[in-house]
Write a structure and sequence with these properties.
Length: 419
């Protein structure tokens, strides 16, 4: 029987989808044959369209050789293989989907995405654990990073700005896990917040005034609640005449100011040396004549240096922090200062925090995935051993309500014309 006649019979036969074992064997066969025939030479510069035809040809050869009938269209199988060669395999189209914010891989068979604040499982899967690890290593290779049994955890940033975290066995018991926080290419605007009812117009007007008046602001919230998004948007109201230094673990901020210096921490290399921490960058930033310092996230010893910067003339500085309420955020600041080894009384530490931070903005994600500014709190002085706070806005019963007016002290700060 000729190849053409066999293929016609093959198409008309009862077909079943390839199982994972056969698909893994198919992938291996096609890649090996293409490498032997020199088709993979110069692959990085080749176009997707130019690869599809030869890949389909090799798939046909494999199916004929193994006498396999299958229901999956050849172009679908070919697309999977081309994604494997040029991109990141099963998650390539997820990375290109603008509606997806996070991609979470829990082993080869469980892939979840987050859209509009809601997690959902998608019908994407890897062939096996080795397939997941191969994709992780492909992501890390251009960055000069590695992952293996001796180094089973890694944080990194892809060239497009997306953040990734990977952890593999033996630490991950159910298979390799990969988390991707996608980088938004388009800068969001205040209209995005208003259209999504994240806050009210009068609340936004008040926060714009706070930024322009150079209040020190802390944005608090849980993971994925939208802290960085809000920080990005508020930073647009910084005067173009100010020099801003940003410090992040993975660069996500998209400031539109013309005078911005972006600094990023560096993890240790495979030998355990070369690390540059956020605390070292904050100290260095103070020598760079900044008007404002924006710390992507407060999580460790850099908090003490950031608070000192806020207290010594770098007004209008901002940061984010993981906490469930403004009160918890202030407690976390106190705790992190204590963990730096700062030798002083609790009351003095509270005075340092209260004198540095003017405002805490709490952002939350509701059960339906909607993100809202749940509280705006003014930070006052220490009274009776506790930092006094004054709630200005809160989200209750699905509406944003003013819950107080700024104190005279805050009013004076808002009315000062510092520039």
């Amino acid at each position: 029987m000729t190849t053409i006649n066999w293929l016609n019979a093959f198409k008309n036969s009862v077909c079943q989808p390839l199982d994972l074992e056969l698909k893994a064997d198919l992938h291996k066969y096609v890649l090996e044959q293409m490498e032997d025939d020199g088709v993979l030479f110069g692959l990085a510069s080749d176009s997707r369209e130019n690869l599809m035809l030869p890949v389909i040809t090799y798939i046909q050869r494999y199916l004929i050789k193994e006498h396999i009938s299958q229901s999956t269209p050849l172009d679908t199988l070919a697309a999977e293989l081309v994604d494997e060669m040029l991109g990141y395999g099963p998650i390539e189209n997820l990375l290109k989907d603008p509606s997806i914010n996070d991609i979470l891989i829990n082993g080869p068979k469980l892939v979840f995405v987050e859209r509009e604040g809601l997690l959902e499982q998608v019908d994407h899967h890897f062939l096996n654990d080795e397939h997941v690890i191969r994709v992780i290593r492909k992501m890390l290779s251009p960055l000069g990073r590695r992952i293996d049994e001796s180094n089973p955890m890694v944080d990194a940033r892809l060239p497009d700005g997306s953040r990734i975290n990977a952890i593999i066995p033996p630490l991950a018991l159910d298979g390799p896990c990969l988390s991707v926080r996608k980088f938004k290419q388009d800068s969001l605007t205040e209209q995005y917040l208003l259209d999504n009812d994240t806050l009210s117009p009068d609340m936004l007007a008040f926060l714009k005034r706070c930024v322009a008046s150079r209040l020190n602001i802390l944005i608090s919230g849980a993971t994925g609640s939208g802290k960085t998004t809000l920080l990005n948007i508020l930073s647009q109201y910084i005067s173009p005449h100010e020099r801003v230094v940003t410090i992040e673990d993975a660069a996500e901020l998209q400031l539109r100011n013309t005078h911005v210096v972006r600094l990023e921490t560096r993890p240790p290399n495979s030998e355990g040396s070369g690390e540059v921490t956020a605390r070292e960058l904050v100290k260095n930033a103070l020598r760079m004549r900044p008007d404002r310092i924006i710390l992507g996230e407060s999580r460790g010893g850099e908090v003490l240096d950031m608070l000192q910067a806020m207290n010594t003339g770098h007004l209008g500085s901002m940061s984010t922090l993981h906490a469930n309420s403004p009160r918890d955020a202030l407690l976390r600041l106190e705790m992190m200062v204590t963990l730096t080894g700062f030798n002083s009384s609790e009351n003095f530490i509270r005075k340092v925090v209260s004198s540095a931070v003017d405002m805490v903005i709490q952002i939350s994600r509701l059960p339906n995935g909607k993100r809202i500014v749940s509280e705006v709190v003014e930070v006052g002085a220490v009274e009776d051993g506790h930092i006094k706070t004054h709630k200005l806005y809160e989200y209750t019963q699905r509406t944003f309500k003013p819950s107080g007016i700024p104190t005279n002290e805050l009013q004076m700060k808002l009315e000062e014309q510092l520039w």
